[in-house]
Design brief:
Blueprint lengths: L1 H22 L20 H19 L8 H7 L6 H9 L1
């Protein structure tokens, strides 16, 4: 649990830092708690993220990687087991 907990904490901090950098969320604040965007161009950030996600899926298929198992599907169908490769792909995406 120790190493997994540290990795989840690090991932959460990275996401929080990105919210601050990209959307101006204050420390301790939440993106979902924002009333409005500071700049209308910030509305493009999720679209750019979607494009990057799509590119990563195409790249993985070109490299002959199989589609990673969805974490919810893994929990329902495989007793919560996922390969380490699938875990890394999901984390990066």
């Amino acid at each position: 649990v120790g190493m997994a907990g540290m990795l989840v904490t690090a991932m959460s901090q990275i996401v929080q830092d990105l919210h601050g950098l990209l959307f101006g969320v204050q420390p301790g604040g939440r993106l979902s708690g924002m009333f409005s965007l500071a700049d209308p161009m910030q509305a493009l950030i999720p679209a750019i993220g979607g494009i990057l996600l799509g590119i990563s899926v195409v790249w993985l298929r070109l490299r002959k990687f199989r589609t990673p198992v969805d974490p919810i599907e893994a929990n329902a169908l495989y007793g919560g087991r996922m390969s380490l490769t699938d875990t890394f792909i999901i984390v990066v995406q």
